Amino acid sequence: MWVERIEEWTRSGQSATEFAEGKPYTSGTLTWAASRLRNGPRGKSKRRVMQPRVGRQAKIQMAEVVRRPPRAVAAESLVLEIAGARVLVQRGFDRTLLRDVLLALRGGK
Hints:
alpha+beta
């Protein structure tokens, strides 16, 4: 029955909406039936639909949650004692200057 309807629709040159007007089916049903017949006797689509495999269970992996102690707060300053001298180093210090001071305290080596 649908083969005859689709052949008649194709010969008519009308759109599916025009052809289905006043008929006991919709244009959507007409185009659906045409696509099913066009894709073979079982209506297999060229698109591949992933189906869950029967009898196969998903693997569940457990994770261990490890709580870490909070990070230590960075010190705002520190004191270096080198060769009997105390050097106060504060956050944002000049690295080049500190290097030069340490070299001088070690005797320029």
